[in-house]
Design a protein that fits this description.
Strand order of the largest sheet: 3-4-11-5-10-9
Distance between the termini: 12 Å
Oligomer: single chain
Largest sheet: 6 strands, mixed, barrel
Order of helices and strands: EEEEEHEEEEEHEHEE
Radius of gyration: 15 Å
Number of helices: 3
Number of strands: 13
Amino acid sequence: MIEISLEILNLHDDGFHPLVEVVAFNKLFKAVVDTGASRTVLDKSTVESYVDAETLLLSDKLSTGLGTDSMESYTLIIPELSLGDLKIHHFEAAILDLSTINTAYEKMEVTPVIGVIGGDILMKYGAVINYASQTLSFLKING
């Protein structure tokens, strides 16, 4: 089992977002743990700071949510995505424009996030979110 700390962000009378530290592109970021997201999604503008835009593959799927009916989505193979001691090699992430989330965070004086950790990772690795202890545990280390 791997256990990592969560930061619980209070959205001031509008709920809570659990944040976790992730390493991608050999850099430390924060990401929202989102049980309602089917896939892990990274922010397009952040990703483009580390990879050439031409390496993003246009997806044939239109993404819904985030306050829109549809938006263009891309995919990218991340050489390594780390959540604490959980290292995921050659991870295929969805890439979307998450500027609306980061703009809202900036208004609350919260550091922007690289994206959201979704159900693909949470299910595969048997994630358990414990709000009381502010931890995210992965029960299945080998997927």
